[in-house]
Amino acid sequence: MRVALVHDYLVQYGGAERVLESLCEIFPDAPVYTLIYDKDSTSGAFDNRKIRTSWLQKIPLARSHHRLFPILMPMAIESFDLGDFNLVISDSNSFAKGILTKPETLHICYCHTPIRYGWDDSHKYIKEFHYSALTKKFVPFMMNYIRLWDKISDRRPDRYIANSNFVAKRIKKYYSRSSEIIYPPVDIKKYYITKNISDYFLMVGRLLPYKRFDIAIEAFNRIEIPLKIIGEGPEIKRLKKKARSNIEFLGRLNDKQIKDYYAKCRALIFPQEEDFGIVALEAMASGRPVIAFRGGGALETIEEEKTGVFFNEQTPESLMEAVKNFNQASFNPEAIRQHALGFDKEIFKEKIEQFIERAWKEFENS
């Protein structure tokens, strides 16, 4: 069987890229088709893969500012020729699912979300990204085009896998398609538990508006407790201006450094509504509890009062109350890690292989 993997764009190393990494382990000979590839931004995870990029790769600024080019991405993803493959697996939170395949090719989409900024987050997207006033006038027209294309292309996959119940509902709402839920992988063995807990709270992730780092910064500015932030992104300058001296920006770190910060933090702060949220499970794999907003995928991964606590509103005040009431001694690190084991990478790979086997038999019979 000839297999191809398709990914939106390889310009960072986050949850979607960890899924792709596991798919690459299942299919070591499969080439990876992606709109844009920036080798330096993916932590070396795909250095030994056959990476095939679109014509967007040659456009100036595309690798460093890919968010400027969503209007070109539908055309770019459709430019790939996958006619030689029997099985195509798209790992998608935006455009990869729109790949064109032949009727005799089985296309399975592992969907992280329908395009967030095209559907329920479109108005928030316009407000939160700091475009000029002139640009903001044209963005709604661009969104109409993207929504139309997204709705047309949602028919292209033969089967959908959702990364959470939360996303399965969104797939049903916006695409009217059913999906099977297989949670994303966490490489549990990479993380460890230590008794040497430090005095800081931790945040990890891309510095993007919807991640709500701003809430945490305002909350920790007021309570003056140490907060360390790992990650880079377009919001970094704005967030640094807001932060007081008790908040430290550590930038992009290597795997070993991140593991150490996870293991020694008092708790992970998780104020965003994520489709799933792998960083929360990475913290739990390190035996550390999570203080999370009560919404999105966190409701499926965090057991209240066992592996973390929730706050109910995305406001500094609500987060402050949760941090002040947080009792580190009430959590058992071994029990937290045991919970995280249910999301281990090997379980993910086993479930994906079983799903593909079933889907292929049904596809052949049809």
List the helices and strands and how they pair.
Elements: E1 3-7, H1 15-26, E2 32-34, E3 51-53, H2 73-78, E4 87-92, E5 106-111, H3 122-128, H4 133-153, E6 159-162, H5 165-175, E7 180-181, E8 201-204, H6 213-223, E9 227-230, H7 236-242, E10 247-251, H8 255-264, E11 268-270, H9 278-285, E12 290-293, H10 298-301, E13 308-311, H11 316-325, H12 333-340, H13 345-365
Parallel strand pairs: 1-2, 1-4, 2-3, 4-5, 5-6, 6-7, 8-9, 9-10, 11-12, 12-13
Explain how this protein is built.
- The protein has 366 residues and is an alpha/beta fold.
- It folds into two domains: 3-185 and 345-365, Rossmann fold; 188-343, Glycogen Phosphorylase B (Rossmann fold).
- The protein has helices at residues 15-26, 73-78, 122-128, 133-153, 165-175, 213-223, 236-242, 255-264, 278-285, 298-301, 316-325, 333-340, 345-365; strands at residues 3-7, 32-34, 51-53, 87-92, 106-111, 159-162, 180-181, 201-204, 227-230, 247-251, 268-270, 290-293, 308-311.
- The protein has a seven-stranded parallel sheet with strand order 3-2-1-4-5-6-7. The protein has a three-stranded parallel sheet with strand order 8-9-10, sandwiched between helices. A three-stranded parallel sheet has the order 11-12-13.
- Helix 10 (298-301) links the parallel strand 12 (290-293) and strand 13.
- Helix 9 packs across helix 12.
- The longest helix has 21 residues, at 133-153.
- The chain is globular and about 60 Å long.
- It starts with a strand and ends with a helix.
- The model has no long low-confidence stretch (mean pLDDT 92).
